[in-house]
Task: structure prediction
Amino acid sequence: MDDRSNLLEVKNVVKMFGGLRANDNISLQVEKGEIRGLIGPNGSGKTTLINLITGIYEVTEGSIHYYGRRIDGLQSNVIASMGIMRTFQVARVWRDMTVLENMLIPAFTQGLSRREAKSRAEELLDFALLIRLKDKQAKSLSGGQNMLLQIVRGFMHKDLKLYVMDEPFAGVHQSIKGIIIESIKMMNQGKDVTFLIVSHEMSTVKALCNKVTVLCKGERIAEGTMEEVANDPQVIDAYLGG
Result:
């Protein structure tokens, strides 16, 4: 991968579901090393957009570029192999496997030895305060713990460049939320991982994100710092419904 500043570029993207425009001519650029927030009222097209970026949905019109390479149309597993990982609103874990096994499976697809993978997994589980649960089945964990497991499992990708997160703070205990925030900061500052985070947690977005993009009814209506978009008349109208 090259070192250009625009890690991700979405150009005039449209996504149609029948006659519904879920995303309508959306453009945005995310720079390398950024923590970008993606916010907006329910039904504004946020999850649809990240599904397009990560290859779950196909773009109807427009294009998506990663380090200058066009990636729309690629399979989601190919996109993941390029260093783009994602989380889901409901944590996707292998419920009948142990916490440690959940961590190890992605590592084995990347050619790491079991010893290297186990060391890395235990290091991350220790940071996430899940190490004491490493031999427990994932189905025995709380929803918040499984969300945390899903997130730190993504950090096992040795070439992780862009982490796309869908509501990582929703419904989790405050203590787990704090660990998630610290893990994002650690990977961003220590490993230069770029983040695109969908969230309704405005105080958390404000504390974490360099810039936020606001969607409403499938369109991008504002972009800037949290303070800037909070004072934007279109954003105020979108949230107040006036």
Summary: The CA atoms of residues 91 and 147 lie 5 Å apart.
